[in-house]
Amino acid sequence: GLIGSKTKRARFERTMRDLGIDQALIDRVVCPIGLPGIDSKQPAVIAVATTAQILALADPLAEVGARPSAVDVRQTAVDARQTAVDARQTEAGVRP
Prior knowledge:
Blueprint: H1 6-18, H2 23-27, H3 43-58, H4 70-91
Helix pairs in contact: 3-4
């Protein structure tokens, strides 16, 4: 997946086609990443939305409509927030 706009997706698709990448593989690219309807630009929100999307795609139970428990969702949010904090510290030159 890619963080980006529809314009960025179109640019990546064009580049991949020019490189001879199979259209079926190009069609599998997820852009923008994250849950639909969450349009925030805040890194922590993007991290949580992306993590939730990955969990939904990777979880075979998600296909039959099962939902994670509130504890699972909360832990995912906590983990994603910590990842965002670690990333900010790394960018600032502080080791997490």
